[in-house]
Amino acid sequence: MNILDVNSGNTVTLNITVENFYISFKIKEIEGDNTNEFFQINNDIRFIRNVDNTKPVKVIFHDPTNFYSPYTRAEGYFNIERSDANVFTMTFSLQGVENTEIETFEYTMGGDGAYLSIFNKVFDFNWSEVDSSRSAPPIEYKMTLTNNTNGCKITCLLQPLKFD
Fold it and tell me: Which of 23, 68, 72, 99 has an alpha carbon 20 to 30 Å from 5's alpha carbon atom?
């Protein structure tokens, strides 16, 4: 990236390397008894692709009065397993920023299914053919996580990627 110093008139070239990439789902709705203190409406779940592909995840809170100062509520790791019956299960191992204890949460994945192709491609799960057939590309990608213990449903929408 070239930057012009307007005071001196000099141009400087900055070499920038992007080490991590993430896809972000915003939690839009919760139905049932939510036992995951980190997953609250309007929080973001950021699935991070790093060099080692260790599948880190962050849960981000946005203060409605100060949207430009996000706060990390929890950090950890995620994984997705696909059963022989084509059921996808997402597991989160999360640790709150104030806590030292790691909590594990397990969810069956649902929704329109198109987001599974994104996870497969970005995180190299190497699933053969993920059914995401649609007649037209979806306007939004919806992911529904259902708690395997109590049936609580958490609906999330993929946030648009911005390149500006």
Answer: 68
